[in-house]
Amino acid sequence: MLMMNPADLPDTIPVFPLPGALLLPRARLPLHLFEPRYLQMFEDVLKTPHRLIGMVQPHKGPKGEEQLHAIGCAGRITQFSETEDGRYMITLAGISRFRITQEVTGFSPYRKAEVSWAGFERDMGASEKDEKFDRDAFLAVLKRFFDAHDLQTDWESLKDAETELLINSLSMLCPFDPEEKQALLEAPSLGTRRETLTTLIEFSLRGGSSEEILQ
């Protein structure tokens, strides 16, 4: 997985508010860009040495306006291809989470923010371990969840997958709402993320709503 030096992280990055699109450190997120403002963002980012885009969950403010969650995750463009009609398929490699300190106003067609990387130094290290992970019990609950949502997967590969890759991939791919995705993003450790993921899965199986969990 691509590694960057913390000293290389910029103070200002473009942010891409996309509901439900979760990026985590050391994971990869494919994106389809077609809106003119995001095509411009892509072209501008390619000219920078870091090639970073910040993925952020939007949410509705008190007056119904779109606001951004304070914590997002930056990904580096590692692959891209252009379609015949001018759209782009890109892949972001998750580098580090960040906290938005303030949005940058200006003439850019897309949003930018000043960000702080403090507190997320662990994101740029080696893969995390989860010593308390009970894979068999987890996969049993996951199978019930996949059956309930009519989802398909290669169960043999899940049995053999590295723990961090398994937990983070499922956090990104499972059909949770944006607030649930945000809770998974903000989990301070892999163990906490696995516990949050398990709670969300079990609650879904009981027919509960995420709002009851996350209050």
TrEMBL record:
Residues 13-205 form the Lon N-terminal domain. It comes from the Bacteria. Transmembrane segments: none annotated. InterPro entries: Lon_prtase_N (IPR003111), Lon_prtase_N_sf (IPR046336), PUA-like_sf (IPR015947). SMART domains: LON (SM00464). This is Lon N-terminal domain-containing protein. It comes from Litoreibacter arenae DSM 19593. The lineage of its organism: Bacteria, Pseudomonadati, Pseudomonadota, Alphaproteobacteria, Rhodobacterales.
